[in-house]
Specification:
Elements: H1 6-15, H2 18-35, H3 37-44, H4 75-111, H5 113-128, H6 131-139, H7 150-153, H8 158-170, H9 173-186, H10 190-197, H11 202-210, H12 215-238, H13 250-257, H14 266-292
Helix pairs in contact: 1-14, 2-4, 2-14, 4-5, 4-8, 4-9, 4-12, 6-8, 9-12, 10-11, 12-13, 12-14, 13-14
Length: 299
């Protein structure tokens, strides 16, 4: 890799964003910690969901680094496992939403005409919907009435799948608009005309020639949307409509803590602080990547 290659220039521009670098390091540390949750569980000799009413609301100690909650469960371990759910939900939903938005934006921008008009009116319709009330209504739907297999309905992971699906089908609009705008510019470039000249079809041009040039736009959009998805999941879980106990997430940990806000305020501070730090870190990282991957930026 030469010093003037696009990747080197992007890395050089990214290094100028101290907050983005710090945020990336913080997120990496957070991911390592939540992935090591079973190791911490083994070291402490207690399970994240082990209930012990004789040890409820204990202060921090060697046995329980952040104390225990109202059911005597270890707060530190539940934060780690909750982080797994919140981070994985954010990443998975953001990727699915970006995939839908990329396809919609690519077809709209490249094909134009009636296809573009129809897809953009669909996008505008989704944008016009009030997001939080819509999510609450969709989450409240009884899965038994949808004809899904009982094994899925009764699975303890069904709340996770439901959140990912609902956020994905409502959160693709921003990516669709960004991809459409970039596609409108790219389809007039010489490499697209050259591909047409050698007989390449529309599908090949879109997915073989234009899509790789959209990766920087998509990466930035996904990074910026992860924080929003985590916030939405936390809100829904806080309202009791998201990730369901005994599975922990930062949002439902806040729900459990609201009844004890005066007796044990740290039960609310820990998950609330992690949500805040994670969301703002992804936003700083997205800003840094946006500048780094912009080919028109100075270096």
């Amino acid at each position: 890799m030469t010093s003037n290659s696009p990747l080197s220039l992007a890395a050089r521009r990214f290094r100028r964003h101290k907050l983005a670098i710090f945020s990336a390091g913080l997120l990496l540390l957070m991911i390592v910690l939540v992935m090591a949750a079973p190791l911490f569980e083994a070291l402490l000799g207690v399970g994240a969901n082990d209930v012990n009413l004789m040890s409820r609301l204990l202060p921090p100690s060697l046995a329980h680094p952040l104390g225990t909650d109202e059911l005597g469960r270890d707060v530190f371990l539940r934060l780690l496992y909750g982080g797994r759910i919140s981070l994985f939900t954010g990443l998975t939903a953001a990727v699915f939403a970006a995939s839908i938005g990329t396809v919609v934006g690519l077809f709209a921008g490249f094909l134009g005409g009636r296809v573009d008009a129809a897809l953009m009116r669909l996008t505008d319709s989704v944008i016009a919907l009030p997001l939080l009330p819509l999510l609450i209504v969709l989450v409240a739907i009884d899965l038994n009435k949808l004809g899904l297999p009982q094994s899925i309905v009764e699975s303890e992971d069904v709340s996770f799948y439901r959140i990912v699906f609902i956020v994905a089908i409502t959160g693709w609009t921003t990516v669709a608009r960004l991809v459409r705008g970039a596609t409108l510019s790219l389809k007039e470039q010489e490499f697209v005309m050259a591909a047409r000249g050698v007989g390449a079809g529309n599908m090949r041009i879109m997915f073989r020639h234009i899509l790789p040039n959209l990766l920087s736009v998509i990466i930035v959009a996904v990074t910026l949307s992860i924080g929003t998805v985590i916030l939405l999941e936390s809100v829904l879980s806080f309202l009791g409509l998201g990730i369901q106990p005994p599975m922990a997430s930062w949002g439902n940990m806040l729900t459990n803590a609201q009844q004890l806000i005066w007796e044990a305020p740290m039960l609310a501070v820990y998950p609330g602080l992690l949500i805040f730090v994670t969301v703002i870190s992804f936003n700083f990282l997205g800003d840094g990547l946006q500048d780094a991957l912009d080919p028109k930026a100075e270096y």
